Each structure stands twice: as structure tokens, then as C-alpha cells.
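Bumping my old thread because nobody answered last time. Still need a sequence for this structure:
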């Protein structure tokens, strides 16, 4: 599951870094706990792991690069491997990956304060760090002290844990309260702290970054790093006596004994490693892999299986973001014409083999917070003509629209070579509509820098997601006409600002849902974002000795073979008998039945029947 409210605060590459100010530690000891607290727990939601799962085996995966540090904060810590480390650190509570209800993690019980900005927690007395030390309320209090320290050289964390968290109150070793700075909706998404081991870090000093660069921090999750070779490999071992292994939502999970990551610095080379069983699972979302490259003996002979699993989760806002500070895009008619000149359906059909789906708007997959009545504007040459002529533009001799010496010629900047064929088709189709797209390929870092500096005409990119729609950073005028903000369209609309402010300030769920839908209608009207594609599924190839539950994943699974992750990871397991059977078949060159699984258990309702059909045009 995308359990973003804890980990993705750090991982989201688009969140701005701000300067933090060190403040005194803010936690207190309290002698008594109020008698009117209503303690809650949840042992009733359905189990999503398989009782058939067995422990054992070694799972081999690949990294494109070796991490620059094992620290989770400070310089160079925001690397891809940090996600592995964070997913082996439990929080106070979790979210069930299908119902999204609160479930226990380190806390067995929780309660909401009457002030709507406090939560109370009872810790599981069995909780242990990987070095055997008990987890106590003081470890959560230390998180505040740690994250506010200037010694960790992490200004964003300094700011967040000062601006969002007021204090931690310790009642005893296993009871605490976390107090936010203000009342908020979805309070459990904001106050779910991870513990930090004071006994490991001790007194922080200016040598923190160097001292802890390669030290293995104790964790509370199922695996811990047991060995590593810098630049080459990292090995993690399952804790045989993990304190949480028999808890309701963790039982029959995290089954592999050993997980080994080897550095293979090229994606295509990783595919070759996979075909030799040096890697156990490989992502095949790209149409070329699913349709062409998997036509290879290990798949056709049945040694490797393929699976296509639909999920129902928040979709990345992938598309074309127009800069409204550019003269040409200040006219809404021109923005509408631009949208109707993008033949996204042809790209899906011709380049993406009709495997991808049309993204209808920015906020797809957010449940009741999504306005699923909105449909993206379709390719329509007549509508392009109507909007352009309405604003007084005429076709020039070369067929491109022009007005007062200005041609409808815009630069589209992007940062991934693999997307070039998609953009080439859009360029060819846009020319038929009288719009010239000039494609500019930069490396990913340079393109993103250009977007944040607002130097683009049109940005081709996708944003990562959260559990709830985030409007302020992308569309509020407070973030327009200035660099280093996420409002890359420079949207500046006073009516929209009022809606966004009301959404941010509301703590009533039904009101927030209504505001969310109204904001999305307003964004569709402004039309500064042209949505393109979404991939509401995961496709993977895996060696047949790896097994999955009857329902292979959860609503929010982004990988069916994630060994970690408290919310939805660790569902698969190793089958020794199937491994031996497969090795014998390969040695004798005996063919087994090829297997392709398509599971639509969690396919989004509004996608039913739409894969190869046009849901209609909308202006």
C-alpha cells in the first residue's frame, strides 16, 4: 500500500526543502492519564496474507546504484534504497491496505483527543529493536528531539517536526500522546510517529553525518541488514524471533529468509540477469516487455510466469503542464485548443499497445475525494479551430496558427528517453491541428530544475501521490510566479484560492470531500494540465518457485513481490519443491505449461469496459 503519510514526506522529490530552526526539545512526562479517553483497536478487518505461506528461501533483486549512505536523514539520504530501510521501521499504527482502517503496529490501542489535535497510544510491551532493546514511549519522544536537531543536517525535517508536531507526552514506558500544532482532518495520518533509538544515536553532535554514514540503525520491522559490500551488494536477514511475527496483520507474511540486492547498473542488463535466474522477479509494465521481450524460452517453456494485477490506488498525475506565465497560455481559449490538439488516444493505441488507460484528471484514484465525472478533453480538430478562431488566430502559410507575429509554437521539455516515441506521435498529431511542439530532452534532474524555475513552456512529467489530494502546493496563487514551488503551471485564480483555503482549513470529512470535487471541477475549467496516461496495475515476471496468495495483492499493491512494507508487503513465499521441479525440467529441457495470470479483483469500477473504448469528449 502507498503508506505515504509517514515515509513519502521524505521521499517525494517535489516537496520543497525549507530552512529549519533548532528549538528546545518538546516532550513532557505526565503523572496521570485522563479517565475519559476512549481506547480503540482493530482486530476485525480481513486478513490478506495466505495461511499456506511458508518460511524460507533467498530472494534476489537488483539495484541500479549503490546508496550513498544508510542514514535515513541528512545529506544523500533521499535515495531509492532508503525506501527499503524505511519499510522495515514500523510506526505507531498502520492502515489496512484494502479497507484503509487503522490497524495496530507498535501501538495496540489508540484514542483521539477532544481537542482534535492529539492522539493517545498504548504500545505493545513485546516491541523490540533489532538489537534486542525494548521499544518504549521515550523512543517516540526522542524522535522529536532527533528530527529537530540541526546536527542531522536535514532542514526539511527540522521544519516539519517543529511546524506540525507540538510535543510528545510520556505517561509511562508504554503510554504516550502525540500533540499536533493545530486541529486537522485525518489526524491519524499526521501524528503517526516512528520511533528513533536513543540508545543507538546518543547525544548528537556535528560529526553525526560522518559517524552514522554506514552504521546499521536498529529497526522494529521484520528484516535488518546483515552484510554489505560497498558498490556491489546488500544482504538483509529475516529476524527469526521477530516480536510481531504472530500479530494478526503480520502473520503469514515476510516469509523469505534472506533478501539480497546486487548492483546492476543497466535496466536491460537486469533483464538478462533475470532470464538467467540471477534475479527472481522483473517488472514488465512497459508494453515492449509484456508483449515482445517476454517471448523468450524461459517464459514460453513455463519456467517463468507472468502476472497482470489491477490495483485501485492513487494515480500519478502524468501529462502536459502548461506555463500560464507564457503569453500564449494566458488565454483560456488557447489552453482549451492545446488540450484538444493532443491525440493521447493515438499514443495509447499505437505506441502503448492499448495497455495504458487515459488519465481523466489530476486526482484519479482518491476514492470519494476524486471527481470521477470529469473527463479529459479529447483530440478534436474542429474544437481546436473553434477556440483558436474565437481568440482571433489564423493559420499561417505553414499551417501553424499565428496572431500578431506570435506563432503557436511551444517547447515541450521532458526527462526520460523512453518517452520520446510518445511525444513524437503527439507532435505529429498536434501539427495537423496547427500547433508546433518543439521537443526538448534533458536529463531528469535538469528537466525538473527547469520546471521548478518556471522556465518551461510545457512540462512533460508526472507527480507522485499522497493518500489525500494535495491542492495548495500545485495550484494556490501563493506558489505562483515564483521559483522552487510545485505550482509549475503558475495557476493564479482567486476563486480557486478560496476553495483551496477552505479545503485546507476544514476538519469535517464530508465538507472536504465536497470541496475536493469542486476544486477539481475548477481545475478542469482552468485547464492548465492535460492528463495523458495512467497505469492502474502492476505487471511482473517471476520464476515459478515463487508463490502468491489466491488474491495475489491488495487494492494498493504497487508490487506483488515487495519483501517488506508493513501495509502490504511480504505476501509471497518460496516453494522448494517447485524450485527443484523447475531445475530438473530446465536441465532436461522439458517444457512446462506457460502461465499468464490476469487478476481484476481490484480493477477500478469506472475502467470496466473502457480499455478499448472512448468515454466521450468533454469541453
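Sorry it took so long. Here it is:
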Amino acid at each position: 500500500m502507498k503508506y505515504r503519510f509517514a515515509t513519502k514526506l521524505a521521499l517525494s522529490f517535489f516537496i520543497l526543502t525549507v530552512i529549519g530552526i533548532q528549538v528546545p526539545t518538546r516532550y513532557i512526562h505526565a503523572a496521570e492519564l485522563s479517565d475519559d479517553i476512549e481506547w480503540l483497536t482493530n482486530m476485525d478487518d480481513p486478513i490478506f496474507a495466505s495461511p499456506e505461506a511458508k518460511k524460507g528461501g533467498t530472494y534476489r533483486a537488483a539495484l541500479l546504484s549503490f546508496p550513498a549512505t544508510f542514514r535515513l536523514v541528512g545529506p544523500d539520504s533521499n535515495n531509492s534504497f532508503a525506501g527499503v530501510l524505511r519499510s522495515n521501521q514500523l510506526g505507531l499504527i498502520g492502515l489496512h491496505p484494502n479497507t484503509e482502517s487503522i490497524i495496530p503496529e507498535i501501538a495496540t490501542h489508540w484514542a483521539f483527543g477532544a481537542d482534535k489535535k492529539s492522539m493517545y497510544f498504548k504500545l505493545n510491551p513485546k516491541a523490540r529493536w533489532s538489537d534486542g532493546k525494548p521499544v518504549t514511549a521515550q523512543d517516540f519522544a526522542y524522535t522529536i528531539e532527533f528530527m529537530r536537531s540541526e546536527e542531522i543536517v536535514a532542514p526539511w525535517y527540522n521544519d516539519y517536526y517543529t511546524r506540525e508536531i507540538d510535543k510528545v507526552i510520556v505517561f509511562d514506558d508504554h503510554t504516550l500522546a502525540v500533540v499536533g500544532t493545530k486541529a486537522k482532518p485525518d489526524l491519524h495520518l499526521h501524528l503517526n510517529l516512528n520511533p528513533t533509538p536513543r540508545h543507538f544515536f546518543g547525544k548528537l553532535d556535528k560529526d553525526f553525518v560522518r559517524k552514522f554514514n554506514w552504521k546499521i540503525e536498529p529497526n522494529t520491522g521484520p528484516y535488518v541488514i546483515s552484510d554489505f559490500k560497498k558498490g556491489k551488494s546488500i544482504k538483509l536477514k529475516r529476524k527469526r524471533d521477530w516480536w510481531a511475527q504472530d500479530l494478526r496483520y503480520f502473520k503469514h507474511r515476510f516469509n523469505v529468509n534472506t533478501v539480497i540486492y546486487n548492483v546492476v547498473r543497466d535496466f536491460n542488463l537486469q533483464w538478462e540477469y533475470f532470464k538467467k535466474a540471477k534475479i527472481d522477479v522483473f517488472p514488465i509494465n512497459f508494453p515492449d516487455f509484456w508483449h515482445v521481450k517476454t517471448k523468450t524460452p524461459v517464459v514460453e517453456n513455463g519456467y517463468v510466469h507472468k502476472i497482470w494485477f489491477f490495483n485501485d490506488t492513487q494515480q500519478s498525475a502524468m501529462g502536459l503542464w502548461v506555463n500560464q506565465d507564457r503569453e500564449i497560455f494566458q488565454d483560456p481559449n488557447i489552453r482549451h485548443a492545446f488540450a484538444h490538439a493532443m491525440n493521447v488516444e493515438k499514443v495509447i493505441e499505437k505506441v502503448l499497445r492499448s495497455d495504458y488507460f487515459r488519465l481523466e484528471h489530476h486526482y484519479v484514484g482518491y476514492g470519494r475525494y476524486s471527481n470521477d465525472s470529469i473527463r479529459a478533453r479529447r483530440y478534436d480538430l474542429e474544437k481546436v479551430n473553434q477556440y483558436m478562431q474565437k481568440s482571433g488566430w489564423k493559420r499561417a502559410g505553414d499551417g501553424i496558427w499565428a496572431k500578431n507575429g506570435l506563432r503557436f509554437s511551444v517547447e515541450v521539455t521532458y526527462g526520460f528517453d523512453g518517452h520520446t516515441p510518445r511525444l513524437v506521435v503527439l507532435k505529429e498529431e498536434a501539427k495537423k491541428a496547427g500547433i508546433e511542439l518543439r521537443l526538448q530532452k534533458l536529463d531528469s534532474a535538469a528537466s525538473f530544475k527547469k520546471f521548478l524555475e518556471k522556465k518551461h513552456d510545457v512540462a512533460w512529467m508526472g507527480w507522485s501521490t499522497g493518500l489525500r489530494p494535495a491542492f495548495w502546493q500545485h495550484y494556490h496563487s501563493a506558489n505562483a510566479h515564483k521559483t522552487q514551488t510545485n505550482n509549475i503551471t503558475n495557476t493564479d485564480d482567486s476563486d480557486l484560492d478560496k476553495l483551496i483555503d477552505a479545503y485546507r482549513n476544514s476538519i469535517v470529512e464530508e465538507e472536504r470531500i465536497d470541496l475536493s470535487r469542486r476544486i477539481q471541477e475548477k481545475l478542469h475549467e482552468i485547464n492548465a494540465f492535460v492528463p495523458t496516461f495512467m497505469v492502474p496495475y502492476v505487471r511482473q515476471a517471476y520464476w515459478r518457485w515463487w508463490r502468491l496468495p489466491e488474491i495475489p495483492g491488495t487494492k494498493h499493491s504497487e508490487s506483488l513481490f515487495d519483501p517488506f512494507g508493513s501495509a502490504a508487503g511480504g505476501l509471497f513465499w518460496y516453494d522448494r519443491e517447485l524450485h527443484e521441479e523447475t531445475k530438473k525440467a530446465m536441465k532436461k529441457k522439458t517444457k512446462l505449461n506457460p502461465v499468464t495470470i490476469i487478476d481484476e479483483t481490484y480493477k477500478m469500477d469506472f475502467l470496466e469496459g473502457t480499455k478499448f473504448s472512448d468515454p466521450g469528449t468533454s469541453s
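The longest strand covers residues 165-172. Let me know if any region looks off to you.
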